[in-house]
């Protein structure tokens, strides 16, 4: 989807803040570890240095003092970072400090900063960019621990603090987008109530408080805009437990599910592949999956079948435009053939770099799909997840179909466990003995330390009911949103395996239609009756396009903005759904979440939902970081400046050298006589004797002893004193 990008807005906010503060004077930019990661996610270093920034430094690292230059600090509001800043002030490391915080300081930290305000070039500023744009409309906080913090019962005392931190980051998104949205939150129905069912309500309340506080601080926010009022929809992982379990066959979701794609600590998403495999030029490489990769962006939300067709079509055009491939039939060329042909074409490096990555990923994904019978598995999963078969009817003999797959050795153990969990959700609970039998039938839970059954049973902490009593009747859970039969019965077999739609997509469809249930999604502040959320008619005079214009399309600058936040992690199918609704309804829908969830990550977290908190290694349980000790070291004293060296003088001829007088048993040093430094050092300034003063002030000439010099000096002074007294008597002045 072209147009607006949160990546660009995030980077623009950072660069604008630096440019405003630097103005026309060269300054040093000082960052901490957290703000460095934030800035690196959307801004190139050259873009910063081009705005009168002489150097970029890290506040935690050793730095040379620069007292003649001002510094711009962009810092995160942490205690140890403030202590680093105060250490800089104490040592006058820079001339003046211009401070920008990425979130508001606590009252305690603010009081400590106020005590040194005289060293600042102005009042501290706020730059609310504490989030990581991953795609044009996808935002994460890089907090994979969030799920366990929110849902593990042993972490209850951490939840409020974590929710406030999430609220602060959500508000940062709103401020960057220059929006004050109407806030709605997911309130689970009665049958889905659980211990954590109030998470969304509390999070929404914290966000509302933060937004209100910001508007009081900045009375001019938000700026006037032709866009309709924005909306923030706050949900959590418990709203849809099927989405992270069901196999998805769109390119991005399928690749993240099946391939060893890594989310690096610095936010980079990489896939390891071998370029020119089988040749002398073979090379291992970690390829990046980024927004600048047009092949990735244009194909990631397509069904894998469409992606392969697109790659093959592009290759056909390549063959037709290159006579080297005359006689090749592109319809009989496999993905592997295409990749091998590209590898042998050094003259087409640019095209090879663009397509070899995605050809490799597509081929490897399809190999795994066929090897582990994912198409057969997906057919049963779709029926269980939707409650309807491919014909839109209630399924029959679904348990028999599931058991056959659990028996199949070609189905991977992780996929069998996902199928058991999906079946337990479909049945709204199994008798514990039946769950155990299913797991044993699937060759799972065979060892004493296995946690497969624990993973399924822990779905209870998310509002599901994986277990039930023996004589308790089965009552299918009503779906959160009514299913549309017309979207279920699909003629194409491949697309029939994609009948399931995430709850996020259905929520957005109802929101855009203006009929989203206010019981399931209440407001934090109810809107006026006349302003009830009818997104289809909402707008302004500036957004009213003439009839001959595209009836359903708005100009990009007038599109309404909808922010969806999923606490506890979002799936790639939910990300795709947000893009699809954006295109369909001419909205800008942004998905924000603590982290992206793959099926493997979700199952791993389920296993730990009742684990001892000490095993989780949560950041909130770690000791608070401390400032580096070297920041408090005093600089070494500056050594005195050495006198300039005396130029060497050639010694006189031997026959002209004179011997020193009696008592001076050494020759005169080269360059002439030198002052008696030892005698000067031994002087007493309190009551200097005549002899000591005489020695100190005498002209030691060759051939005179120290005693002779003292006597001569005394006679000269006595004579001068008598003459002076005589002149004064007659009133004479010399």
Short description:
The protein is of the alpha/beta class. It has helices at residues 6-22, 33-40, 45-49, 79-90, 107-114, 146-151, 156-176, 199-217, 251-258, 294-299, 304-320, 335-343, 349-371, 374-386, 398-407, 413-426, 432-441, 452-457, 503-513, 572-585, 599-607, 677-681, 690-697, 706-729; strands at 27-31, 53-58, 70-75, 97-101, 125-126, 132-135, 138-140, 182-185, 231-236, 262-263, 269-275, 283-288, 561-567, 588-593.
Q: What key phrases describe this protein's structure?
A:
five-stranded parallel β-sheet, six-stranded mixed β-sheet, disordered C terminus, single chain, Rossmann fold, 5 domains, 734 residues, 39% helix, alpha/beta, Syntaxin Binding Protein 1, Chain A, domain 2, globular
Overview of the molecule:
With about 725 residues, the chain is α/β, with parallel strands linked by helices. It has five domains: about 5-130, Rossmann fold; about 135-240 and about 500-540 and about 555-620, Sec1/Munc18 (SM) protein, domain 2 (Rossmann fold, 3-Layer(aba) Sandwich), CATH 3.40.50; about 250-370, Syntaxin Binding Protein 1, Chain A, domain 2, CATH 3.90.830.10; about 375-485, Serine Threonine Protein Phosphatase 5, Tetratricopeptide repeat (Alpha Horseshoe); about 705-734. The protein is built from 24 helices and 14 strands. It has helices at about 5-20, 35-40, 45-50, 80-90, 105-115, 145-150, 155-175, 200-215, 250-260, 295-300, 305-320, 335-345, 350-370, 375-385, 400-405, 415-425, 430-440, 450-455, 505-515, 570-585, 600-605, 675-680, 690-695, 705-730, and strands spanning about 25-30, 55-60, 70-75, 95-100, 125, 130-135, 140, 180-185, 230-235, 260-265, 270-275, 285-290, 560-565, 590-595. This is Sec1-like protein.
